[in-house]
Amino acid sequence: MPGEAHASRSTLVEPLWLRAALIVAALAFLGLFLLLPLTVVFVEALKRGVGAYWNALQEPDALSAIKLTLMTAGIAVPLNLLFGVCASWCIAKFDFHGKHLLITLIDLPFSVSPVISGMVYVLLFGLNGLLGPWLREHDVQIIFALPGLVLATIFVTFPFVARELIPLMQEQGTEEEEAAIVLGASGWQTFWRVTLPNIKWGLLYGVLLCNARAMGEFGAVSVVSGHIRGETNTMPLHVEILYNEYNFVAAFAVASVLALLALVTLAAKTVLEWRFGHELAATRRGG
Q1: C-alpha closest to that of 153 among 125, 117, 111
Q2: Pick the residue with more confidence: 66 or 270?
Q3: Which residues contact 254 (CB under 8 A, 6 or more apart)?
Q4: Any residues with CB less than 8 A from the CB of 117 and at least 6 apart, and which?
Q5: Which value, in Å, is the radius of gyration of the alpha carbons in the chain?
Q6: In this model, does residue 8 exceed pLDDT 50?
Q7: Residue 192 vs residues 166, 177, 189, 253, 275: alpha-carbon distances, Å
Q8: For residue range 159-198, what is the model confidence (pLDDT) as tens digits?
Q9: What is the pLDDT of residue 191?
Q10: 212: closest CA among 83, 70, 114?
Q11: Nearest residue to 224 (alpha-carbon basis) of 72, 11, 83
Q12: How many Å from the N-terminal Cα to the C-terminal Cα in the chain?
């Protein structure tokens, strides 16, 4: 038996040349499709010096795009956080009719083009849309305004938090919550002192992914924004306009801000994966 185990392990060890080739291929792929474009963004942004780079970021339309992007994400992400926690709590902790339908609806943005989702909002809230006349009578503007950007962003990002929490909550089960309730804890006490500490790293990870997608979303917000400079253009839309106007330094300068936000997100994602992985391993050993 020991000999058979040793033989089976030896068959799973690839030759050194094969491992080296796979590592080189992976590094070459990352360098070609990730590191090289990222380097080009910063090189082009700083092509005319730091002064031109800084002036491009201080331009009023650029500041408006940055502010609008942060504002849209700042509204959409907390709402998706609330929805994700509620949906994952219902799906993982309870059995009810329509449960599978709810899971399917949560996955809907993954299968629908963002452009199509933006068009749906235009057909609903546009001037000639289903609710357009009523909105016009009451002086409420959704399309070509901040509410439309927020709605489109919410749609394309709302699966991220729920999809991180649902499998985590299902794996943890309901034993700890049931024990807390038996000991006299209320529903809110059970959530804050039992459920939330158990899901905190998965929750933060989902929020991080949701925020990254919200700030970088292009298709859906492009449809509902109207491309009004200084008013409804987020950073991705502003980069497109500057690039189409051959203002490459300004375009890459704004793009570099998005790239920096992506790098910060990647670093935070790595830290959260490490913490979440260690805590999950400790929980399993304790169980």
Answers
A1: 117
A2: 66
A3: 56, 57, 62, 65, 66, 235, 238, 239, 242
A4: 109, 152, 155, 156, 220
A5: 24
A6: no
A7: 17, 11, 5, 43, 20
A8: 999 998 999 888 888 888 888 888 888 878 888 888 888 8
A9: 85
A10: 70
A11: 72
A12: 30
- 257 Cα distance to chain centroid: 17
Residue 190 CA to its chain's centroid (Å)? 28
Which pLDDT does position 278 carry in this prediction? 64
Distance (Å, rounded) from C-alpha 171 to C-alpha 152?
32
C-alpha dihedral (234, 238, 241, 244), degrees to nearest 10 = -130
3-class secondary structure per residue, 92-159: HHCCCCCHHHHHHHHCHHHHCCHHHHHHHHHHHHCCCCCCHHHHHHCCCCCCCCHHHHHHHHHHHHCH
Q: Please say whether the beta carbons of 239 and 254 come within 8 A.
A: yes
- In this prediction the pTM is 0.83
Burial class (CB in 10 A: 0-12, 13-18, 19+), 146: middle
**Rounded Cα gap, residues 34 and 13, in angstroms:** 29
pLDDT given for residue 33 in this prediction:
84
